[in-house]
Amino acid sequence: MSELPPPLLRISDYAGWHARQRPDAVALKLDDRAWTYAKLAAEVDRLACALLAAGIGKGDRVATLQPPHPAYLVDFLATASIGAIWVGLNPRYRLEELLHVLTDAEPAILLARRHIGDRCYDAELTALAAACPSLERIILHDSADGPAETQPMSAFLQSGDGVGQDVLDAARAGCDDRDPCLIVYTSGSTGAPKGALLHHAGLTRFSLAQNLLWPLSSLRVINYFPINHVGSVVDCSLPCLVAGGTTIFMEKFDPAECLRLMARERVTLWGSVPSTFPMILDLPDFADHDLSAVELIVWGGAAMGEDVIARLAALGPALATNYGMTETTSAIAAIAPTRDLERLANSVGPAFPGVEIRLCGADDMPVAQGEVGEVQARSALNFLGYWRRPEATAEAFTDDGYFRTGDLAVRRPDGCYRIVGRIKEMYKSGGYNVYPREVEAVLESHPAVEAAAVVVVPDPIWQEVGIAFVEIGTPVDPADLHAWCRARLANYKLPKRIEIERALPLLPIGKIDKAALRRRLG
């Protein structure tokens, strides 16, 4: 790997740093379009000026509704560079989900697309403008003739052309490394998504450490993850930016197209969630594509099956995996490039550089070596807290500053950690966090449903999926309940199956007996 840049004060500073060092190097690609570092830095500066002209200042929020696209990264870097806080929105969100994030984060500006795939967002944008008092402007990246509540990006950018370099420099000088720059929404046990507040220093240090842990001759990676996900921003986009590498964007994941892109673009890091690897490996023409540029294969977000690990190892590149959470800026444990298949299959590695890990019981006291305990992590990378939720923030940390993950693990004799379960009910489907209570609340909002319970079962493709059991008051077709959920939830949260019950089994204390429901599934 070429020499890494030094630690910079703000994560957004790396666009300009590389523009000065290597202005013609390609930073971002989408289809046949390329953004050099010079172009990226210029677009970041121009949007930052427009945001300043619109009155955005330190601590203000700016949201983006985009698929994985170079413009999303410009939006984030411009916002963060002037001390404001950026929020990503998943295009798969339905109106209720969009409303929750926007009414909670209260952004002053929404940078959006009118059309994403085959979906038009005119109705949602109009509804958001009416329902979100904080929202002063909606700027469209892709259209000059959107709803009346919107403004084209071209006009918005022109409004900032009168902002001088001295004003831009002053705004950036007022932003320090521990200032927040990113809110990532992640659900809790109640099912109501909370905003995890990440800071410049955490993002910068994580990116530098990951690049040192996984060194490559040059970093070229594909990003098809939704922009509200820590995997897109923290794991993929920012380490590549810091390294001066090239991110190739896909607006929608397609296994065959991803394989073609990896070969054509000479991708060096094949990184993803476990569910996507079999989809690509099983393509009938997989062997016809030249992946000789791939130097490292990495997965995260969930455990990988041993058979898939063996197939990847047979391809030749070294393998690695990591374990982290949004609240820890993705950093808890990680494995350096290796061909040790046992370690890869049965652990998440030792502590990530700079992270302290301990395994504790319910009393927050460390358990003995070899015993199961909750993973607790402490580092300078940990998040600042949950947005406007001081009680939830206090509950998330121990008195001595360790973050409570809710995951259970064992520390192996070799110092690696093996995840064995979760205290919380959250499960991961295709690498995305799903919280049963959120799904249950949507089902219970249906007029026919009296109560709902979602239990988790293994799945060969998505690792885990939810099966919903519902107690009904009036007859209803499960297909109608699926449609009800689909209109209100992103598709990765949808239960795979809905079982209609006369009555759900209860524990003596009156809670639903989910263990009994799991036993019914065998």
What distinguishing features does this structure have?
Rossmann fold, 522 residues, GMP Synthetase, Chain A, domain 3, 25% strand, 4-stranded mixed β-sheet, alpha/beta, 17 helices, 27 strands, 8-stranded mixed β-sheet, 3 domains
Which CATH top level class of the largest domain fits?
Alpha Beta
Portion in strands: 25-35%
Characterize the quaternary organization of these chains: single chain
CATH H-level name of the largest domain... which superfamily? Answer: ANL, N-terminal domain
Q: Gap between N and C termini, in Å? A: 50 Å
CATH fold category name of the largest domain: Rossmann fold
Round the Cα radius of gyration to an integer and report it. Answer: 23 Å
- Arrangement of strands in the largest sheet: 9-8-5-3-4-10-11-20
Secondary-structure-based class equals alpha/beta
The domain count comes to 3
Low-confidence residue ranges: none
What gross morphology would you assign? globular
Provide the helix percentage: 25-40%
Main sheet characteristics: 8 strands, mixed
Overall pLDDT metric? 94
